């Protein structure tokens, strides 16, 4: 049952990545090009991770590399999408989520068995917790990017063109530029 949930979740996430990439191609073809390429690569990595499951069998090396592509590609795509944007809360949240994913990945790699720092952490409980936190942050990145890309563009503030003449001068024109009273 867990394998089915993993497969369905991965395919839904891949579909979300492709939808965001397609929307970027329509709305920002030049600015969103790097994010778009990474999102398509992440979607391919998710599909490959489903086709070639972890464990013994054909393609045992494909699953770890596909997973590595996903966990590094999504935060990079989110960061590149959010960089240089106007100060809006959504872009700040997207940046914070991508930075937290990168930090979690760095800590997870540093604490991995065989690493120099792995002896500082006792047992596998911290690794499991780090992996789960990383998966949650990665799962949040795609909907955040989708919300950022699919939201309508901000409307510019209407310009204030008030006529400074008094109301009675608007009703009847003056011959000499002065109001007649």
Automatic annotation (TrEMBL):
InterPro entries to which the protein is assigned, alphabetical: DUF998 (IPR009339)
Region Disordered: start-end pairs: 157-181
This protein's UniProt keywords: Membrane, Transmembrane, Transmembrane helix
Transmembrane stretches, start-end: 6-26, 33-52, 64-82, 89-109, 129-150
Tree of life domain: Bacteria
The protein, known as: DUF998 domain-containing protein
Species this chain originates from: Sinosporangium siamense
């Amino acid at each position: 049952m867990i394998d089915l949930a993993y497969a369905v979740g991965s395919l839904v996430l891949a579909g979300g990545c492709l939808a965001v990439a397609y929307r970027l191609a329509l709305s920002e073809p030049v600015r969103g090009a790097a994010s778009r390429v990474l999102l398509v690569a992440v979607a391919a990595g998710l599909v490959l991770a489903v086709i070639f499951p972890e464990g013994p069998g054909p393609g045992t090396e494909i699953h770890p590399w596909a997973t590595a592509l996903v966990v590094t590609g999504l935060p990079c795509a989110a960061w590149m999408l959010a960089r240089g944007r106007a100060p809006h809360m959504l872009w700040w949240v997207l940046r914070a989520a991508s930075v937290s994913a990168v930090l979690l990945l760095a800590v997870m790699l540093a604490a991995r068995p065989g690493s120099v720092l792995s002896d500082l952490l006792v047992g596998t409980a911290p690794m499991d917790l780090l992996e789960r936190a990383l998966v949650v942050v990665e799962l949040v990145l795609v909907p955040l990017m989708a919300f950022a890309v699919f939201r309508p563009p901000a409307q510019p503030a209407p310009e204030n063109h008030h006529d400074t003449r008094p109301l009675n001068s608007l009703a009847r024109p003056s011959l000499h530029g002065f109001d007649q009273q």
